[in-house]
Amino acid sequence: MLRFDLQTLFFPQVDSFYSIPFEGFVASEPFTNASGRLVFKFHVTQIDGQPARETVRLYLRSDELELTGIEYGQTLQCFGHIWAQDHATNPFQTDQADNLLGQGYQGMAAAKLEDVVILDKRTTPYSMVVYIRKKVSEHIDRLFPQSAGLAKAFIMGDRSELSEEVRNAFYSTGVAHLIAISGMHISVLAMMLELVLSHWLTKRQSSLMALAFITLYGAFVGFPASMLRAILMYAISTGAMLCGRPSDAPTRIAAALFIMLTAQPYYIYNTGFALSFGASAGIIFLKAPMDTLLRVDRISKLKAGTPNRTHILRRLLKYFPELISTSLAVTVATLPMIMAWFGAQPLSALPLNLIAIPLAMLAYPVSLIVLLISFVVFPIAHWLSSVPDILFLLLTRTVSLFSNLGVAVIHSPRYPAWLVCIHCCLVIAASAFTRLSHRVHRRLPIVTALLLLVSISAAYLHTLGFSMTFLDAGQADATVICTDGHVYVYDVGEPYTPIADYVSACCIQIDGVFLSHPHYDHAGGLVTLLQSMPPKQIFVPAGWAQVEMNETIEEGILLAKEMGIPIIECLAGDVLTLSANATATIWGPSDFPQDVNDLSIVLQIQSREKNLLLTGDLTAKGEPDHLPDIDILRVPHHGSKNATSEQLLEQTTPKIAVISVGENHYGHPSAELIERLQRQTSEIYRTDEYGAITIRVLANGDYRISTYLRREAENLESQ
Description:
The protein is of the alpha/beta class and about 725 residues long. It has 24 helices and 24 strands. Residues about 710-719 have low confidence and may be disordered.
C-alpha cells in the first residue's frame, strides 16, 4: 500500500480541463484505432500557458482532414480537452483509471486535427528506435504481403494493422496469446540464440549475448509487461549461473514479480501482466503433475547409442502429449483470470493450440531470420520470405476456421476472492516443490479445475433471497433483481453498460429483461447484454413497436429475435410469477401516451413481504391513478422536477428512494424533487454519489444496504 501511495504522490492523475489550449510533444508512434482516431502518448508541457508535466493518451480526430503528418518527437500546440479517467463505480467493473496508470498514462486528451499546430520536432535517444521500427515495418510490408499485419504483431508487438475479423478470431478461440509478444516468444528466441552462439562461444558467453539481444529487442518492442517478465526471469537465471549459484523456477518468477511490482505497482491491473505470470506459474507448478496425470512421463527414455532417427521419432512422438500437458497446465492455472476478464474459456483453445503453437513458433523465428537477412541481402530474403508468409497465412486461416465453427465455451461467474486464494494454494500444492504424496499430486490439478463448479455454486447462492442492485450507469438506468435463485434486469443502460460485466461476474443466467421504454439510455445496451449473457425472455411495454426508436435499440431487438428470445408486451394489470416467493405486477402503461417517457413499464416486485417499485422515465402527468404501498422506490426519470409527484409519494410511502443519475445538463436530480423526497422518505441514495447501490432483504425483514463508493454506508441496517 505504501508503494501505491508513493506512486500516486509522484504520478497523480491529471486535473480535468475542457476547451483549453495545451502544448507538449509526441512520445510514441501514432496509430489509427478502430474508431478512426489517431492515438499516441503525449507529454504535456503547458496547459493554458502554465507549465505542466503530465503524460496522457491523446486522441486526434477530423471530419475533413486526413489523419497524417503527426510523428514521434513533434511538439504540438493543441486546443481541446484533458481529463482524468474515472475510477470504477460498480462491482466487477474494470477500473480504467488504474488501468491507464499501469500503462504509464495519467489521463486522457482529445482534440481535432484542425486545432493542432506542429511547432517543431525534437530528437531523443528513442528517435533511433522509432526510425528502426519504421524501417522494419517497411521491410515486413515488402517481405510478407499476404500476412504483414500478423507478422508485425509477432515481430514488433504492433497489432494495429490486424483486421478486426482476425483479431476477434484469435480472441474468441482462446489463442490471443499468440499475437502478443510473450514469454513463449522470448523463450524461443533465447533458445535459438543460445543454440547458434554455442558453436563459437562458451555457455556463459552465449547466455550473456542472448540476454543482451533480447533486452535490446525488448527496447525495440517497447517492453510490454509479458515480455518484461520473461526477460527478467532469463536475466535472473543468467545472473545465477554467472555467480555459480543455484536457480530454480519459483525463485525466478517470484523475483521478477517483486521487481516489476516494486517498479510499477499499477502493473497489477494490467491483463497481460497477470496472464503472463499466471501462465508461467502454471507451467512451473502444474506441468509435472499434468505429465504424470496424462502419463507423458512414462514415455521411455532412450539409451545411449540409439540411432538419431529413433531420437527424432521419439521427440516427435512426445511433442504433442507434452504440448497438451503444457496447455492444460496453463489453462487450469489461469482459469480464474480468464473467467474474470473474458467470462468464458473456449473449448477450442486446447485442440487449436496443438496446431497453432507449432505453426506460430515455426513462423516466428523463421520470419525473424528472413527479416535480418533482408537488411543485408534483400533479394535472397525476398525469395525466402514465402515460407513464413505462408505459415502466417495458414495460421490465420486455421484460427478463422475454428472461430467460424462456433465451438462451445465454458461460461462461469467470477471467482470470489476466497476461492482465488484456494485456487492459488492448490496450484502450489500440486507441484513437486511440496512434500505431498505422489497420489495427491496427481489428483490436485483435477481438483483445482473443479473449483469452477464451486464458483458457479457461489454465484447461485448469491442470487438467493431477495436483493436488488442499482448500478451506476451514468445518466442512464440499469438494475439487477435477484429473487430465490432467479435473476431479472430492469433496463440495460447505454451501449457501454455496466450490466454485462456485472451479470457475467456474479450470475449464472438471466431469467428476464424488462425494457421500460425505447429510449437510448434505458435500452441502448441490449446488444452488449445479448452478446454477454442472453436472457430467457424480454418484456417491453404494449405499444413499443409504434415508437420510432434509435437504430442501436432496433439492432438489439433484431438480434434478440435472431437468437429466438421471446419478446413479450406488458400492459397494466398483468401479473407475472418471477420465483416461488416473488411476483411482478404491471401498473402501467394502461394505454398509448403522448409522451414516450410515460410508456415506461411501472413494475412492482413483491417478495418476502417487501415491495420494490421501478418506474423508468415516468413523468408526473403519466402516473397511474392508483399505486401500491411500497418499501423501495427507484425514482422516476433520474430525479427530474417534472416526475415523482407528491401524490405518488403519498400513495407509495417509500422508506428508501434510489436515484439513478450521472453527469448531466438537465439539473437532475432537481432541488424540488429532493425536497419532496426528504419530506416523505427516510433514506435517499444517488448512484452519482454512492456508485452501485445494493439492497438485500434479510431473513428477519430488515435491509442491508451497501454502496460501492461510500464504504461508511456499508452494512447499514434499517427497518
